[in-house]
Amino acid sequence: MIRKAVYAGSFYEASPIILKKQFDKWFSEAILPNDINKVQGVICPHAGYVYSGACAAYSYKLLSLQTFKTAIIIHPSHRGNHFSLSVSPYSEYETPMGILKQDIPLADVIKSKGLQDIDASYHQNEHSMEVQLPFLAYINPEIKIVPVMIGNQTDEASRQLADILVSVVNEKPDDIVIIASTDLSHYHSAEEASRMDRKLIEYVKSNDIKELYNHLMHGKIEACGFAGVLTLMLLANMLKPEKMIELNYTHSGYTSNDYAQVVGYLSAALIS
């Protein structure tokens, strides 16, 4: 079953020629740390590329320097929270850069750990997963994927997923990377957004899961895909010696010139 590219032409360019030119430009401009040995996972934004594409390029440029076979994409549902965790049912994924295939054996293993079947339309219509796919096809069209959607975002869901993923990662540590898809604060002034987001980034870098979750629950910081971020932070504890580093932070105001209401974007990496 093929998942069609729903957001090509809206969230990102439908033309592979134009898209490649954008990727080439963003990758050439992304300056990365030079002392990274291994990348186990990344945090990426999922907004329209005009706002967050250059930021996401930092994570994907870093991934392009790694050798791996499968990307597990942890992403939120923006259309329903009546479920906890669900693996995408599609076997192939259409992108302007070509078709990506699901890692079906790995997807079956993850699904067998108690994940839920939901209507395929939730997976079909979710942009937080789809916007990751052209980047992956750009860096390596042979990469396989396993999208995992989180509906009801809780620390319990994150811990359940982290417990599942640590076993599959430990089995094939050089074959798998984790992508946590999230945007940060929504529709605050640029000054307030930067303040909130900087606090979140510091919790991520220090791997302070308790304070991150506490501040999220009290509305002091925001991330629409926070359960994926929590999962990656939990994995950092399980896959020691791992640490989280910031690669790039920006917000939509730099593109829109509207600094009254912005959305924050982060690229970060779980490295050894």
Can you describe what's shown?
The protein has 272 residues and is α/β, with parallel strands linked by helices. It has helices at residues 16-29, 49-64, 104-111, 120-124, 127-130, 133-139, 155-171, 190-206, 209-217, 226-238, 253-256, and strands spanning 2-3, 39-44, 70-76, 85-87, 92-95, 98-102, 144-150, 176-181, 186-188, 243-251, 262-271. Strands 1, 2, 3, 4, 5, 6, 7, 8, 9, 10 and 11 form an eleven-stranded mixed β-sheet that branches. Helix 7 (155-171) crosses helix 10 (226-238).
List keywords for this structure.
alpha/beta, 272 residues
Give average pLDDT, whole number: 96
Strand content: 15-25%
The succession of helices and strands, N to C, reads EHEHEEEEHHHHEHEEHHHEHE
The largest pleated sheet is described as: 11 strands, mixed
Anisotropy-based shape: globular
Rounded to an integer in angstroms, the radius of gyration calculated over CA atoms is 17 Å
Q: What level of helicity do the residues show?
A: 40-55%
Structural class: alpha/beta
Number of helices: 11
Number of extended strands: 11
Low-confidence stretches: none
User: What is the rounded distance between the termini?
Assistant: 37 Å
Describe the structure concisely.
With 272 residues, the chain is α/β, with parallel strands linked by helices. It has helices spanning 16-29, 49-64, 104-111, 120-124, 127-130, 133-139, 155-171, 190-206, 209-217, 226-238, 253-256; strands at 2-3, 39-44, 70-76, 85-87, 92-95, 98-102, 144-150, 176-181, 186-188, 243-251, 262-271.
